[in-house]
Amino acid sequence: MDALRETPEVLYGAIAACVIVILLTPAVGGMARILGVVDRPESRRLNVNPIPRLGGLAIFFGIFVPALAFLELGRETRGVLLGAAVATVVGAIDDFRVLKPGRKLAGQIVAASIPPFFGVWIDHFTFPFLGPVDLPVAVGAPLTVVWIVAVMNMVNFLDGMDGLAAGVCGIAGVTFAVLALSLGKTDPAILSAIVAGACLGFLRHNFFPARIFMGDSGALALGFLLAAVSVQGLLKTASTVVLLLPLLVLAVPILDTSFVVARRLKHGEPISQPDQAHLHFRFLRRGFSQRRAAVTMWAWCAVLGGAALATRFIPFREGGTWHPWETLAVIAIALVALAFSLYVVYVLEIVKLANPRRFLRSRREETVDERRSA
């Protein structure tokens, strides 16, 4: 709280981003309709009416304007904003005319290569039991590019249900803002809060029933920014625990992407081929409504983010000494996060094992549905 009082720009930026996106999104949606950039109903989509894309343009400008107003625009920040602009352009082009996977990936790599050029790259890593290890630019820069491209695609994969990606990214933005602020990383904290505010504003128009989609322009921009601020604000610190926090905060999109990619590789399908194997589709097949499925995944993300904050703020081990009560508190919070994760796994997977015949029948039905959607 002391850091927040000393840095009110965190709140100002979030509020400004939220207001800008709320006001700008309807105009962007109208422009998308005029240009014909709309998602039309089909077997692989959930919308029953044509919905305009390009909501990512409103998100980008909702982030860019407060960033110019509240950030110091040092070298690293300029690199992050420039890379976000390139990522948004790549996504917007894909929204207008679907890019081939190779060209789209090339554009993502170009965007992800900009922050390292401006000094935002993982220059050292803290390994358990080994301590901090300095990384040469030949290792740290490519590692940063891979991380940014991976998160961009994770958010893009997650954007398949009304409000889901915006909600998850908003929760991640709030968590990163708090963590970065606690580490004295002011600019990443402000930018993370701005991202969270933009996501909240977009949800005004994107939660079920959505009136506009963020499209690839929004998914790539949000994924880029979350990955970049996690590097700038967290991964460059000398703490072993902090090393794991981005993985915990982004666990939901990471697990969703890992599940989908593993399934496609198992069945010999192209990784870029869309299907209905994502976790949110599985929720719908279990009888969840779109609202309930999205809120459940938000809650899952929030619980994991809470576990990350607990790991950071509860002093369970200081100066090599373990504190029993604090340790028990961290363990209890971790068990809550684990229990929620097991609940999701139970709902989506384990419940089918209670009846082998039901499991086999459900598996056959899912295979038929997926083949039809293809």
Topology readout:
Layout: H1 2-6, H2 9-35, E1 38-39, E2 51-52, H3 55-70, H4 75-96, H5 101-117, E3 124-127, E4 131-134, H6 137-158, H7 164-182, H8 186-206, H9 215-235, H10 240-249, H11 251-266, H12 279-285, H13 290-313, E5 317-318, E6 321-322, H14 324-348, H15 356-373
Antiparallel strand pairs: 1-2, 3-4, 5-6
Helix pairs in contact: 2-3, 2-8, 3-4, 3-8, 3-9, 4-5, 4-9, 5-6, 6-9, 6-11, 7-8, 7-9, 7-13, 8-9, 10-13, 13-14
Spatial ordering of strands, largest sheet? 1-2
Quick one: overall form? globular
Could you give the order of the helices and strands? HHEEHHHEEHHHHHHHHEEHH
First-residue to last-residue Cα separation: 51 Å
Query: Which regions are unreliable across 5 or more consecutive residues at pLDDT < 50?
Result: 353-357
What is the arithmetic mean of pLDDT? 86
SS-derived structural category: mainly alpha
Cα-based radius of gyration, to the nearest Å? 21 Å
Strand content: under 5%
Summed up, the helix count is 15
Helix fraction by DSSP (H/I, runs of at least 4): over 70%
Main β sheet profile = 2 strands, antiparallel
The count of strands amounts to 6
Number of domains: 1
Walk me through the structure:
The chain is 72% helix and 4% strand. The chain has 374 residues and is mainly α. The chain has one domain (2-373). The strands form three sheets. The chain has a two-stranded antiparallel sheet. Strands 3-4 form a two-stranded antiparallel ribbon. Strands 5-6 form a two-stranded antiparallel sheet. The longest helix has 27 residues, at 9-35. The protein is globular and about 60 Å long. The model is unreliable at 353-357 (pLDDT under 50).
